[in-house]
Design goal:
Elements: H1 10-19, H2 29-41, E1 46-52, E2 56-63, E3 69-71, H3 76-80, E4 87-89, H4 102-105, E5 112-119, E6 125-133, H5 141-214, H6 220-252, E7 260-263, H7 264-282, E8 285-290, E9 295-298, H8 300-316, E10 323-331, E11 334-341, H9 351-354, H10 375-385, E12 391-395, E13 399-406
Parallel strand pairs: 8-10
Antiparallel strand pairs: 1-2, 1-6, 2-3, 4-5, 5-6, 7-9, 10-11, 11-13, 12-13
Helix pairs in contact: 2-5, 5-6, 5-10, 7-8, 8-10
């Protein structure tokens, strides 16, 4: 038995074959119909679309044979791809190259073989369209022509299949890019709306001071006192503006969020300070429940924005004497963080709307405060960028808990 040699351009041939991503694919009617037609028109018991890789011949389509593949070292098709035209063996038992081949001495007891090489669009040989019989014979001139024509149909089907697959992948990429663009636009709109909402109160306060100043209604000491009172709010707004604008820039450029290990208590302090004045005005008690030295892996700025939004919402929906707890504690799969309050809570039918990314849901606060309904949507977006998500537990008129998981500090 003569073992087939690799082709001179074997590496390039195999790379081209693998590029078509057809090996081990499910049966397809277009190929099945061609082998059935080839067997009928060439009056053969067996017909195959055989693709030859580095170790086997694999049958994309087969008629009259149950096997799915055979080793390359005994494959007739591995010899056929060395030729440019039909490779024909009238009687394998009398051919010194095949007389002791296991496919000749055992099932399927090949005697006659004829294989037309299959070419890729770039001229590489993939395998063959072949016909096989268990008795010696030869193809007629008409049958040789039929086999060549049908082989070209196989080549066209292979090329069409590749083009369809490439088109599907391109459409998938376009769809993903469209979703990304829509998401980025939504983030932009949400971010700007939240910024306008968060900046409104301190800027309104500054505008009132300027109006009073214009009308000479304030004495210098009063002006200094009012400016000192509003200065922390202006500084916080400036800081938030820079943070959110940086975030929008990262989003628009498709950059990953930078995560690192950091202590939670300093972030908790800054977040609580953001809502301290509003909480004091409403007579709401702020409580921090975070053990000293607790660290986490995430993005510090984004966590602060999430906590501030959750705390602001909690203040909005609590009454005088209510409590708001900013918490973080270790559990099996990381650290659970969130905000819990004893305020109005959320009606059961509204819980799903609260966390929806498609619905802007907002209700009036306990002192009829208005909101944009975008704060929680923004929180959800930020948490998703840190591979987390916002969840909620709530009972109407008993309070709510918004929470999420982040990894503990990573070495």
């Amino acid at each position: 038995m003569l073992t087939p040699e690799p082709l001179p351009n074997e590496d390039e041939r195999l790379a081209e074959l693998f590029r078509y991503e057809i090996l081990d694919s499910p049966p397809e009617p277009d190929f099945d119909e061609i082998v059935e037609l080839a067997a009928e028109l060439c009056e053969a018991e067996i017909s195959l679309v055989s693709l030859v890789d580095d170790r086997r011949q694999w049958f994309k389509a087969s008629y009259g044979l149950d096997a799915k593949e055979t080793p390359k070292n005994i494959a007739f098709c591995a010899h056929a791809i060395h030729t440019d035209d039909i490779f024909e063996i009238p009687n394998a038992i009398e051919d010194e190259r095949f007389h002791d081949n296991p496919l000749v001495t055992n099932e399927p007891h090949i005697r006659f073989y004829a294989g037309q090489p299959l070419y890729s669009a770039n001229g590489y040989k993939f395998g063959t369209l072949c016909v096989i019989d268990r008795h010696p014979r030869e193809l007629t001139a008409k049958q040789r022509q039929i086999l060549s024509v049908l082989a070209r149909q196989v080549e066209r089907q292979l090329e069409l299949r590749l083009r369809v697959k490439q088109l599907q992948e391109s459409l998938k990429i376009i769809h993903e890019q469209k979703k990304l663009l829509v998401n980025l636009n939504q983030i932009k709109d949400n971010t700007l709306s939240v910024l306008c909402h968060d900046l409104r109160n301190p800027l309104n306060g500054l505008e009132s001071i300027l109006d009073l100043f214009d009308h000479d209604a304030l004495e210098p000491p009063e002006i200094v006192k009012l400016i000192q009172d509003i200065k922390p709010d202006i500084q916080q707004c400036s800081q938030q503006l820079n943070q959110v604008l940086n975030w929008v820039q990262v989003q628009s450029q498709g950059q990953d969020v930078h995560c690192e290990n950091f202590l939670l208590n300093p972030v908790a302090e800054k977040s609580l300070a953001w809502v301290a004045k509003n909480a004091e005005t409403k007579g709401v008690k702020l409580i921090r429940q975070i053990e000293p030295g607790l660290t986490i892996f995430g993005n510090q700025e984004l966590l602060e924005i999430v906590w501030r939004n959750l705390l602001s919402n909690a203040v909005k929906y609590t009454r005088k004497g209510d409590k708001i707890i900013l918490f973080a504690y270790k559990q099996e799969h990381g650290i659970c963080l969130g905000v819990r309050d004893t305020g109005l809570g959320i009606k059961e039918e509204d819980i799903e709307k609260v966390l929806s990314s498609d619905v802007q849901f907002s209700t009036l606060g306990t002192t009829r405060e208005k909101g944009t309904g975008l704060g929680l949507m923004l929180c959800q977006t930020y948490l998703q960028r840190m591979n987390s998500e916002l969840k909620v537990k709530s009972r109407w008129m008993e309070g709510s808990e918004f929470y999420f998981l982040l990894p503990s500090d990573l070495v």
